[in-house]
Amino acid sequence: MSVAYYIVLDNDEPGFDSFVNGKAIAHAIEELDTLCEQADLPRLESFMGQSAEDMADMLGEEIDLPEDDAAPLVWHTADAGIAYIEAVIYAIDNMQHGLQASDEVLEDLEEYRRVLEQAKEVDAKWYLALDM
User: What span, in angstroms and rounded, lies between the C-alpha atoms of 9 and 78?
Assistant: First the structure.
């Protein structure tokens, strides 16, 4: 089973391809979490925002969540994402870390930045989702 983190935009037809690979990020998430802690950055998961419907689709079964327990979906600005991605890239390039496959992780981060820069142009908001 292949796991990947991908970007969801609040604009279904942004006028550009919003595909990102995200597999290297998913495979290195524990190392990235450690790096983010060392660099005093939030974890990548702080940008997650899947709905119960998305989770049900991913799991292939219905999820029954009480309304009161459902967390509101948080959309992030493209600027916030770009600044975060650039900070993570800087940390990878300039800090001692045990990040395996850092070249592949950097490629994923560059794809995220490309999509977020295009999202900024159309004033789209975003969040990360997990594909399994």
Answer: 10
C-alpha of 110 from chain center: 12
Measured from the Cβ of residue 27, the count of other Cβ atoms closer than 10 Å reads 18
Helix, strand, or coil here: 15?
coil
Other beta carbons less than 10 A from residue 25's beta carbon:
24
Distance CA 96, CA 26 (A): 20
Tens digit of each residue's pLDDT (9 = 90 or more) over 94-117: 987 778 788 999 999 999 999 999
C-alpha span between 47 and 9 (Å, rounded): 12
- H-helix or E-strand spanning residue 90: helix 78-94
State both tokens at 15.
């006028």
Q: What is the pLDDT of residues 32-67, one digit of tens each?
A: 999 999 999 999 999 999 655 655 565 555 545 555
Global confidence as pTM: 0.84
Two structure tokens written together for 60 = 């292939």
